[in-house]
Write a structure and sequence with these properties.
Elements lengths: L2 H12 L5 H13 L1 H19 L8 H14 L6 H24 L3 H18 L6 E2 L3 H7 L20 E9 L2 E10 L2 E9 L6 E8 L2 E8 L2 E7 L3 H9 L4
Antiparallel strand pairs: 1-2, 2-3, 3-4, 4-7, 5-6, 6-7
Helix pairs in contact: 1-2, 1-3, 2-3, 3-6, 4-5
Length: about 240
């Protein structure tokens, strides 16, 4: 593999996603390339920050009330030992359930939003913003033919102040997706496009993650996620050119 190919494999290497042969080749390259070692360290640092800032989830009020009630019954006199032993067991089971839910339950939209921000930051950090660099929509769109199983909509928005920079392949929730890159006053905008799970259109909705603005909408059987450090108003203007 050449230098560029190694750089593209550093992130899956850090995540432990490479097979033994490719991982060994990356390791050999890292041992001799100071630039790639520095990139590896930055990616590891980013991964650590994203992991540390993962959201926590609290038990619903009704569940907390039931647990407290079970604990109060546990404190009754010894003559009611049969009941409070049962209550204690139930309370422990509920606490274990709460813990399991807090570790595994995340709203799909929230989880995807976190991945969108992580991919946006990674594209800037690894200097891998585009695979195909062009401001011509008729150059960018055909580049995806055969690489994804859908045809992304690519628009030329230069006249509206959002020039097209290019596009690349990326991954969201384990799926290959299209990432179009636009720009506004030197602020990159990543627009992720992925087939939607529903045919119903959804109006744009805004989120904020770690200082980045996101806008999500569904149109034409496709899910769109726009993300940037651009101010929210201008990002809404950008989304309006695509959104229903």
């Amino acid at each position: 593999m050449n230098h560029q190919e190694i750089q593209e494999r550093i992130h899956p290497y850090v995540d432990g996603e490479l097979d033994v042969a490719n991982a060994r080749e990356v390791e050999l390259h890292l041992s001799a390339c100071e630039e790639c070692r520095a990139l590896e360290q930055r990616i590891r640092a980013l991964s650590s920050v994203l992991t540390a800032s993962a959201p926590a989830y609290h038990a619903p009020a009704a569940l907390r009330k039931n647990v407290r009630a079970a604990l109060r019954k546990e404190a009754k006199p010894a003559r009611q030992i049969g009941w409070w032993v049962f209550a204690a067991g139930a309370a422990c089971a509920l606490l274990l359930l709460v813990f399991a839910l807090s570790q595994t339950t995340r709203a799909p939209r929230e989880a995807i939003a976190d991945d969108v921000v992580a991919n946006h930051v990674r594209s800037l950090l690894a200097t891998h913003l585009v695979d195909v660099a062009s401001s011509n929509q008729h150059t960018v769109k055909p580049w995806f033919d055969g690489k994804v199983d859908f045809a992304p909509e690519v628009r030329d928005l230069a006249a509206d102040g959002f020039p097209l920079v290019g596009g690349r392949l990326d991954y969201l929730q384990g799926k290959t997706v299209v990432a179009l890159v636009y720009e506004r006053n030197k602020h990159p905008i990543n627009l992720f496009i992925v087939p939607a799970s529903t045919n119903r259109a959804a109006a744009p909705s805004a989120l904020t993650r770690r200082g980045y603005h996101l806008i999500h909408w569904t149109r034409g059987e496709m899910d769109y996620w726009a993300v940037s450090d651009l101010n929210a108003e201008e990002l809404h203007q950008f989304a309006a050119h695509f959104a229903p």
